[in-house]
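Encode chain A's predicted structure.
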Amino acid sequence: MPDTTAANPDRVFIHMRSSFIICALFLCFCVSCKNNNVTEAIPKGPVNITLDLNLLDYQHLLVPGGFTYVEGGVKGVLIIHDYDDNWYAFERTCAWQPLNACSKIWVDTQSIQLKCGEYASGGFQPCCESRYLFGGLPLKGPAAGSLARYNISRSGNLLYVYN
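Encoded structure for chain A:
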């Protein structure tokens, strides 16, 4: 059977043009689709906190695994001394739908994870099923992004949290 494409260059051009148009339409469709897993920007507020680890209120932070909640930012700041001896300071706003009133980060001491929700009616009420590692990375649930971090540094027994 003879090669009909070699005999008809217009047919090749029409076929290539049709393929290009189909690919372009498919690409436009993919780009325009809304991805429900995309998280909103996590709001961060001004933070300039100094903690004296010599004070009784903060001495538990000297031990890896210690954490505390402090005022600042938008919904508060969570300071963690992780088990790997790293220090973290997070905005207490969940990465999944951060503008929801219930979207607040708490430490789950039983699972050694961070969870999203609020304490009401004598117990914890989850806002979503998002869970995070102590380093702020998402572990499970709808949150695809990490928690918003603030800068943290230590000089002797003074801990500085800032942005």
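Helices lie at 4-7, 9-32.
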